[in-house]
Specification:
Number of strands: 13
Catalytic activity: thymidine + ATP = dTMP + ADP + H(+)
CATH topology of the largest domain: Rossmann fold
Shape: elongated
EC number: 2.7.1.21
Number of helices: 6
Radius of gyration: 21 Å
Bound molecules: adenosine-5'-diphosphate, the ligand Cc1cn([C@H]2C[C@H](O)[C@@H](COP(=O)(O)O)O2)c(=O)[nH]c1=O
Strand content: 15-25%
CATH architecture of the largest domain: 3-Layer(aba) Sandwich
Distance between the termini: 56 Å
GO molecular function: thymidine kinase activity
Strand order of the largest sheet: 5-2-6-7-1-8
Keywords: ATP-binding, DNA synthesis, Kinase, Nucleotide-binding, Transferase
Enzyme class: transferase
Helix content: 10-25%
Structural class: alpha/beta
Length: 252
């Protein structure tokens, strides 16, 4: 019996790697599949893993109809037993419904991969519909970690190194280990898209809920630990502007 499975998690937890592995394993057993992706960091029509593997894929656009994609291939004699759907958070609800219909009416297995929520902790439309319709939602085994060592559950967006909570939902970007540099101070607020004399650099960082809520990125934690605070200094004993009642760094 065909299935709609949603493999979900934060950024950088191995979704695209798993997508490529599942495609490889099914293909190796003679099954025919089609790979789809949307807005991959490596560019249009690609599925790329940070482990270094990448391959071609069909780019999903707003007018892509998955039902038609499968019908066209089957009509021309191609075998379509399964679909690999990467970056599925960016698909529309209607496209996810087409995927579900392919499972139910054409016995096509659909393996979808995507992040659940955006930088404001809001569900992406595609992910929401997948959670609503999937036969199984699987959280990936490899956990992305917060800088504190806890499991990361949130995707924070940074602009020029500062965490932001406003801006467009879709902004293609990557997570990157932060290096020391001249970036603005902890708690400063800038908005995604704001240009201050240069093109803003958008990045992402996976955080645990506690540090997402307190707006403490790795860089912020470093600043606090290495700043002129009297040691020992407990980063977690601070409230953040905008994250609670504090107006600044307010040791609890
Ligand atoms: N140099 C590396 N060596 C080993 N593992 C790596 C390396 N770079 C990335 N990874 C692994 O790849 C994972 C990210 O895989 P990827 O498929 O790109 O994630 P996702 O699609 O979920 O964003 C990381 O969690 C890490 O486990
Ligand atoms: C949180 C968040 C992420 N994105 C973008 C950033 C990346 O291009 C992809 C996620 O890719 P990954 O392979 O899972 O790392 O999504 C976005 O556009 N908006 C967001 O809020």
């Amino acid at each position: 019996m065909a299935e709609l499975v949603f493999f979900s998690g934060t950024m950088d937890c191995g979704k695209s790697t798993l997508a490529l592995q599942m495609d490889y394993n099914h293909r190796a057993r003679g099954r025919g599949g089609v790979r789809f992706s949307c807005n991959d960091r490596a560019g249009d029509s690609r599925i790329s893993s940070r482990l270094g593997l990448q391959t071609d894929a069909v780019e999903v656009r707003t007018d892509t109809d998955f039902w038609d994609e499968v019908v066209v291939r089957r009509t021309s004699g191609l075998r379509v037993d399964y679909l690999i759907c990467d970056e599925a958070q960016f698909y529309s609800a209607a496209q996810v419904e087409q995927l579900a219909r392919l499972v139910d009416e054409m016995e096509v297995d659909v393996f979808a991969f995507g992040i659940t929520s955006d930088f404001r902790t809001t569900l992406f439309p595609g992910s929401q519909r997948l959670i609503e319709l999937a036969d199984k939602v699987q959280v990936l085994q490899v956990e992305a970690l917060c800088w504190c060592g806890r499991r990361a559950t949130q995707n924070a967006r940074t602009v020029d190194g500062i965490m932001v909570v406003e801006g467009d939902q879709v902004m293609v970007g990557d997570v990157a280990p932060r290096t020391a540099g001249d970036v603005p101070g902890v708690g400063d607020q800038v908005h995604a898209g704001e240009v201050v004399g240069h093109e803003p650099v958008v990045g992402y960082e996976t955080l645990c809920r506690r540090h997402y809520m307190r707006r403490v990125t790795a860089h912020g934690a470093n600043l606090m630990a290495g700043g002129d605070q009297t040691l020992p200094f407990d980063v977690d004993a601070c409230l953040w502007p905008g994250a609670g009642s504090g107006t600044g760094l307010t040791p609890r």
